[in-house]
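User: Could you check the structure of this?
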Amino acid sequence: MENEAQHGLARIRSHYGRFSDKEKKIADYILDNPEIIIHHTINQVADELSVAESTVFRFCKRIGFKGYQAFKIALAAEIVTPIKDIHEEITDGDSIGTVSEKVFRSNNKTLDSTLQILDGASMEKAVQSILGAKKLEFYGCGGSAAVALDSYHKFIRTGIPVGTQLDSHMQLMSASQLTEEDVAIIISHSGTTKDSLDVLQVLKDRHVKTIAITNFAKSPLTKKADICLYTVSEETDFRSEAFSSRIAQLSIIDALYTNVMIAQQSKGKQAIAQMRKAMALKRL
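Assistant: Sure, the predicted C-alpha cells are below.
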C-alpha cells in the first residue's frame, strides 16, 4: 500500500472518474473543504452530506486508507505541512547552479508524486486498448502538442499505424476519420481546452476509444474519456504547473510505449529493425 502520509487529495483526484455518484459527492466535499475535514468526525461528515457513516468509511478504504481516521491524519499532514520541497523555492539571488538543482528536484518531485497516484488498472486498460487498436492517434494543443508529437515519434516504432496533427482544424478532420476500432490519446493538462474538447466530442460521436492524460480529475475531459491517466504537478513562482506536468506526461507515454513493446515481443522488434534499416540511409 502507498505511503498513507502523502497524496490524500491526489488519490481522490486520480480515482474521481471511477467514483459512483455518492462517492463523487463525498470527493467534491473533501476537495472543496480539506481544512474543514481535518476537524470533523466521520459522523459530522456523514451528517453534512446526508450519507451513512459506513459510506464515508468505505470511501476512505476505496482510495487506499485503512479508514476515516487514517485518511484524516494524512490529510492533516498534507494541509498543515504541505508536501513541498524547499529546494523548489527559487529566489532572485540564486546562482545558476542552484537554480538548475532546484529545477531538477522539482521535476523529480513531479515524477514521484505522479507515480504515487498512477493507477495500475487504468494503465492496464490503456495498454490493452492500444494493443488492440487498428490505428492510434495523439491529440494535444499548446504545450501538450509537443507531448503528442513526442508520443507519435515513439509509437511509430511499434508497427501500429499512428498519427498526430498539430493544427486544430486538421485534428478535427483526423478525428472524423477514426472508427470504433481505433484509439485516440488526448493530452491536456487542464482538461478544459476547447480545441481538445471539440476533438473529444467528434471522437465520442465516432465511438472511438479515448484515453486522457491530464492533471485534473474534475474536468470536462475526464467526464467523457473512457480511460484517464493522471499527473501531479504544482505551480511555483517561476514555473506554471502545466509546464512542470509535461515531464510527467512524457513519462506516462514512455510507460505506455514500453509496455506495448514488451507485449508485442517479436512484432515490436521487427518494427524497430525495419525503422533502423530505413534510418541507416541518413548516416554517412
